C-alpha cells in the first residue's frame, strides 16, 4: 500500500529528539547520565523471586488467569495500605485502580477526559511522554513556569483563569526532569485553585518515596483533608517502577469515583487488565514486609550519588552551570549560564559531550511551550560515585 | 465537582449488557458456560514457575528494568520462530511487536488508524471488546454476515465497495463468539479483496492453536505468500492468553513496517512497554520446549469437552436449538429455533437459565449492527464433562 490511512491524531506527535540521542548511547565506553531509569543493581531480585514463587504456589489461578480490570484485589489492598501509610486517610482498595505502569494512568486520563482542542496545563518542563500522550488525544498542552520550589502558583492561576483547562498535571515531588520539590504552601494553593476554578488536578508521584534527608511534604492528595471540596478534584498516579521494578509495570490511579469508573471502562478496551502475574508478585512483595528496607537502601544509594554529582558539577563546571541540589528523585536540572563566553546551547553541548564519552539529555524537549535551550537533565541514578566523577571530568572537556 | 468534563468519545460506548449478567454469576452453585476464559486447571504452573525463576536468575536486569517498547528481544525471537513454525515464512523478531495482551494490539490499531467517523468492517457477530475498542476512537463499526464457514466473502465485498472501510477485522479461526472456521478458499478471497480494494485486513488469531482434530487452514497472514501484493495489507494479532496464560498479558502484533512503527510510537505513550517480567518469563517458557506438550494437553481436554457439550445440547434441547459443532476454540454459537412454540429470545432464556443454576451469554451484544436476538454463546472450556452434562440438563428445564 502506497500510503497508510493513518489517523489524524498522529500528526500531533513526533518521535522525540531524545530518542534520536539515545541511539548514540550504544557507543562503547560512554558514561550516561541520560537515562530516566532506576539502577538495576538496586532491584531486590531475591525478594521478587520469592514473591513470584509464592504467588504461583498460593494462588496460581489468580496469578495466571484473566483478572478484574480494576486490579488484583490483594494488590489493591496492599496499595491502599501503602497510601494510607503516606497520609492519605480515606483510601481503601476500591478507591484505586491498578494500571500498567503509571504511563497507562496518563493514557486513561487522556482517553477519558481529553477532546481534541481541550487545554491541559503542565509544568514547564515536564515529563516528555506526558506531553505526547495528551497530544495524541488532541490536547493543547500549555506550560506553567516552575522554579526550584515547583510550579509558580501565581502564574498557574493566571493560566487557569485564561485557558480554563480540562485539568492541570503536576509532578510535585522531585519532578522529571526538574527534580523540583513543590513546597507545602504551594501545594495548599494548588488545591485552593482546583476548588476555585473547579478544575481537576492530576498529581503524578513516581518519585515521592525517593527522598534523601527529611521526607517531603504530604502529597497533594493527602493534603485534600485540609482544603474543603478538594478531594473530588484530585487525581493521583502512583508507581512501583522507581522504587521496586519498572519491569513489573505496576502503577495505580486514584480518582474521583465517577472518573475512576470511566477509566476502568477504557482500560477494559486498552489491555483488559494489568498482568495478574506481575500484580500477584507485587502484592506478595508488599505483603512480605521487605519494602521499607528496600526503600531505605535505594534512598541511601541515590542520596550519595546526588551528593557526588552536585559536588562534581560545581568542581568541574563552576560558573558555567547553575542548578539546585535535588532533595530526592533521580535528576539534576541545570542551566548553562554562558559565563565567560562558554557554551549556552544544551543541544550543542550534548553533541560535544557524546564526543567526549559522556551523555545527558538537553532540556528543550521537556517543554510543551517556550523551550529553554540552555537547560539540561542529568540523572545520577545509574552511575556509581567513581563514574560520576569521571563523567563530570569529561563534561568539563566538552565545555 | 458536579459533572465531570468527560471526553465526547465516551458517549460511543457503554458498559456492556454482558458485564451486568456476569454480576449474577456469583450465585452459589451456578454452572457457568458464560466465560471466555481458558481453564485455570490447565495452566502449566510448574513450567511457568521454572521459566520465571530462570528469567530472574539469568538476566534479572532484563526481567525487571524498563525495556524496549517493541518488546523484549529474546521473546520477539521466540515468537517469530513460533509464527514461522505456523507457516509464516518471512517473519523475524523485527517484524513483530509485543503487546499487553492482544487487546492492546486492537487498541493500538484504533489509535493509529481510526479517525472519528471512519468505518471498520467486522464479523457479525464478533468479539465485543473489539467493537467497543474501535468505537472509542470514533469508528462506525459495520457487521459483515457470517455462517459456519466464517465471513461470507460476497457480502464482505459488497460492504467493502460500499463503505470503503479503514480496515476489515476478522477472527477467522474458531472466532469468538462464533466458533466458526473460515475456509481456505474464503481466506484467499479475503486477501484478493484486500488487494482489490487496497484495504488493510486485521486477522485476530488467539484461538488458532486450539484445534481438536485436523489443523485449520494456514492463517491469512501465512497465505499472503499465495496472493501477490497482499503481505503489506495484512495485520495479525497473536496471543499466549488462550494457550498458556492470560495473566501474563503477552500478545503480539505483526503489521506492515510503517504501521508497526506508528503502533510502537503509540504504545510508548500507552504503557511504555509490556511487563518485561512477564515477557522474560514467556520467553523462557517458549525456549524450554514445553509449549508443544502443553498445546497437546489443552487441545485434548477442550476437544473432549466440546464433544460432550455438542452431544448434550442435542440430547437435552433437540430441535429447540441449532448449531454447528466447533472444530476448535472455546465456544459453541447456537440459535434458538422457536420450534414447537418454545422460547426464541436468548436474553429471556439466559435469565430463566440463571434461575435454574446455569449461565451462558446471549448473542445479541456481539453484533455491531443487526443483532440476532435468538443467538447465544456457550463456552465449554472451564467445565468438565460431568458439569457440562448437568448444566445442559438444567438448560432443558429453563427451556
- The helix content of chain A, as a percent range, equals 40-55%
Q: Most extensive interface, residues per chain?
A: A-B, 76 and 76 residues
Q: Please, what is the CATH homologous superfamily of the largest domain in chain A?
A: Type I PLP-dependent aspartate aminotransferase-like (Major domain)
What's the multimeric state? homodimer
The domain count of chain A comes to 2
Q: In CATH terms, what is the fold-level topology of the largest domain in chain A? A: Aspartate Aminotransferase, domain 2
Distance between the termini of chain A: 49 Å
Q: How many H/I helices of chain A? A: 14
* CATH hierarchy class name of the largest domain in chain A: Alpha Beta
Radius of gyration of chain A: 21 Å
**Main sheet makeup of chain A:** 8 strands, mixed
Spatial order of the strands in the main sheet of chain A?
Answer: 2-9-8-7-6-3-4-5
Overall geometry of chain A? globular
Can you tell me the residue ranges of chain A where pLDDT is under 50 for at least 5 consecutive residues? none
Order of helices and strands of chain A: HEHHHEHEHEEHEHEHEEHHHEEHEEEH
Provide the structure class of chain A. Answer: alpha/beta
Second-tier CATH architecture of the largest domain in chain A:
3-Layer(aba) Sandwich
Mean pLDDT of chain A: 95
- Please indicate the percent range of residues of chain A in DSSP E strands (runs of 2 or more): 15-25%
How many runs of DSSP E, i.e. beta strands of chain A?
Answer: 14
Cofactor (chains A, B): pyridoxal 5'-phosphate
Pfam family, one (chains A, B): Aminotran_1_2
Subunit structure (chains A, B): Homodimer.
Keywords (chains A, B): Aminotransferase, Pyridoxal phosphate, Transferase
Amino acid at each position: 500500500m502506497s500510503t497508510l490511512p493513518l489517523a489524524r491524531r498522529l500528526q500531533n506527535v513526533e518521535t522525540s529528539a531524545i530518542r534520536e540521542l539515545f541511539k548514540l548511547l550504544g557507543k562503547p565506553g560512554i558514561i550516561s547520565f541520560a537515562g530516566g531509569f532506576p539502577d538495576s543493581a538496586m532491584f531486590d531480585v531475591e525478594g521478587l523471586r520469592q514473591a513470584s514463587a509464592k504467588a504461583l504456589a498460593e494462588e496460581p489461578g489468580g496469578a495466571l488467569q484473566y483478572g478484574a480490570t480494576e486490579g488484583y484485589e490483594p494488590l489493591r489492598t496492599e496499595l491502599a495500605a501503602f497510601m494510607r501509610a503516606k497520609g492519605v486517610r480515606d483510601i481503601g482498595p476500591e478507591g484505586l485502580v491498578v494500571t500498567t505502569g503509571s504511563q497507562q494512568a496518563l493514557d486513561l486520563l487522556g482517553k477519558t477526559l481529553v477532546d481534541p482542542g481541550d487545554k491541559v496545563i503542565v509544568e514547564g518542563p515536564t515529563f516528555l511522554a506526558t506531553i505526547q500522550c495528551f497530544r495524541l488525544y488532541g490536547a493543547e498542552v500549555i506550560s506553567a513556569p516552575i522554579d526550584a520550589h515547583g510550579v509558580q502558583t501565581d502564574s498557574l492561576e493566571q493560566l487557569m483563569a485564561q485557558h480554563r483547562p480540562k485539568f492541570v498535571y503536576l509532578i510535585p515531588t522531585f519532578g522529571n526532569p526538574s527534580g523540583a520539590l513543590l513546597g507545602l504552601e504551594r501545594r495548599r494553593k494548588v488545591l485552593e485553585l482546583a476548588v476555585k476554578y473547579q478544575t481537576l488536578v492530576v498529581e503524578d508521584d513516581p518519585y515521592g518515596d525517593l527522598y534523601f534527608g527529611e521526607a517531603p511534604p504530604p502529597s497533594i492528595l493527602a493534603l485534600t483533608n485540609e482544603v474543603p471540596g478538594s478531594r473530588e478534584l484530585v487525581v493521583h498516579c502512583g508507581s512501583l517502577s522507581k522504587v521496586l521494578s519498572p519491569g513489573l509495570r505496576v502503577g495505580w490511579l486514584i480518582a474521583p469515583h465517577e472518573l475512576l469508573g470511566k477509566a476502568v471502562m477504557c482500560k477494559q478496551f486498552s489491555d483488559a487488565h494489568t498482568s495478574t502475574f506481575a500484580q500477584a508478585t507485587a502484592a506478595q512483595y508488599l505483603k512480605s514486609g521487605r519494602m521499607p528496607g528496600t526503600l531505605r537502601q535505594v534512598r541511601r544509594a541515590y542520596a550519595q550519588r546526588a551528593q557526588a554529582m552536585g559536588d562534581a558539577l560545581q568542581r568541574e563546571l563552576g560558573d558555567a552551570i547553575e542548578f539546585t541540589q535535588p532533595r530526592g528523585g533521580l535528576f539534576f536540572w541545570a542551566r548553562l549560564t554562558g559565563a565567560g563566553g562558554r557554551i549556552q546551547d544544551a543541544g550543542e553541548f550534548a553533541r560535544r559531550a557524546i564526543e567526549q564519552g559522556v551523555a545527558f539529555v538537553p532540556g528543550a524537549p521537556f517543554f510543551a511551550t517556550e523551550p529553554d535551550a540552555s537547560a539540561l537533565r542529568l540523572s545520577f541514578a545509574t552511575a556509581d560515585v567513581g563514574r560520576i566523577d569521571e563523567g563530570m571530568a569529561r563534561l568539563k572537556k566538552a565545555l
